[in-house]
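[step 3/7] fold_predict: job queued, chain A
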Amino acid sequence: MAASSHMILWSIWNGRNSKLWEGSDTPPSIIVQRTRDSLHEWHYMQRARQPGQGTYLEAKWMKPLPPPVKCNVDCTLFNNNTITRHGFCIICDSWSHLMLGMSNYTLFSSSLPEIETLGLLEAIKLVVARGFPSVIFESDCKFVVDAVNSSQVPHNEIGDIISRSQDLLSSHSQFSISFVRR
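[step 4/7] structure written:
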């Protein structure tokens, strides 16, 4: 079955589940838009897997300068994409002292960009709850970093998570997110 057929069925299924479990009726136009956005993300990720043509700057981890701390976020999928794990650690100053770490897993099937986005949102929430004043979030998922730093948010589940992340980041002016190659 082609990727577009999978996306259509997946979007219809999610609309059905929203109606059944949450009582929310998703209009067909939103289902179609979510399908288009999901298909666009899938094509983007497929292109990202292929070696690039041209040059790029090598992004790598560097020790933070005071006062901000760095929060490295990473996620993975296990067991044929039915178990997901996200984790992050908050590293203090230029001595790289570990201040806080967290790891969590969920038992549901999802895409890697969605899990990376959820991991980032959880990290932002924890940092806000702990009162860190200045944080640089780092992720090796370029799609998520670009999406959070963009003004265009997809109209799908990932877009909802990105939007919540953007709201938290914008309400804390000393927070930023950047891409780092692992």
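[step 5/7] annotate
Confidence is low (pLDDT under 50) at residues 53-57.
The chain is about 45% helix and 20% strand.
exit 0
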